[in-house]
Amino acid sequence: MKVLVIDDHPLMRSAIKREIKDHKPQARVILCAHKDEGMEAIRNQTIDLVIVEIGIPGGSMHTIREMRAAARGIKILVYSSVNEAIYALPAVASGAHGFLSKDSSGDELRIAIDMVLDSKTYFSKTIQETLLSQVIANVDASNHNPLQTLTPRERIVVHLLLQGKKIKTIAEMLNLKESTVSTFKANVFRKLQVGSLIALSEKMAMLR
């Protein structure tokens, strides 16, 4: 069995490898520091399981989809420091088989690995409760992506903000009042839980 670990922190890569080898001594563990390096390994080798930190430079939901397209039978476990309440469901909707926070214990990592290898989906208890609440509310969990809460006009404002346009300029372009554009901006920041344009840019890149 081959397990590919993609993480940009050397100590974390070593720690994950140690957990895997302790749990599954027969596994061959391949370590990659960058997304492109990991994708090359996926394309050129038969990988059974990928454990990936989507918070690495260039990492996003698209990264997961790219992995699935490159090797359709591959199992993907996101093991990440990013907020699971925001990213866990979009990650699985994008094709991951599980999401585990790096705050979790080694035992939880082993459980997650076993479940994913057994073609089951792994979520923490917190996310399971969120899913249950959505089922009770009759909400489709596959649509649990914050970007989908943005209105068409809010998406346009986001696009222009990320191009570096000022509120006044956007108002003139869209024939709106500056106060209206400011309200759209505030709504976007609230829905995506960000406090700055830098954070907005990072979150948009991650969730696309």
Automatic annotation (TrEMBL):
> What are the GO MF terms of this UniProt record?
DNA binding
InterPro entries xref list: CheY-like_superfamily, NreC/VraR/RcsB-like_REC, Sig_transdc_resp-reg_C-effctor, Sig_transdc_resp-reg_receiver, Tscrpt_reg_LuxR_C, WalR-like, WH-like_DNA-bd_sf
Q: Does the record bear DNA-binding in its keywords?
A: yes
The record ties this protein, via CDD domains, to: LuxR_C_like (cd06170), REC_NarL-like (cd17535)
PROSITE patterns, from UniProt? HTH_LUXR_2, RESPONSE_REGULATORY
* Residue ranges annotated for the HTH luxR-type domain, each copy included: 143-208
The alphabetized list of GO BP terms reads:
phosphorelay signal transduction system; regulation of DNA-templated transcription
Q: In its keyword annotation, does this UniProt entry include Transcription regulation?
A: yes
Response regulatory domain boundaries: 2-117
UniProt keyword terms in alphabetical order = DNA-binding, Phosphoprotein, Transcription, Transcription regulation
Under the heading Pfam families, the entry gives:
GerE, Response_reg
This one is known as: Response regulator transcription factor
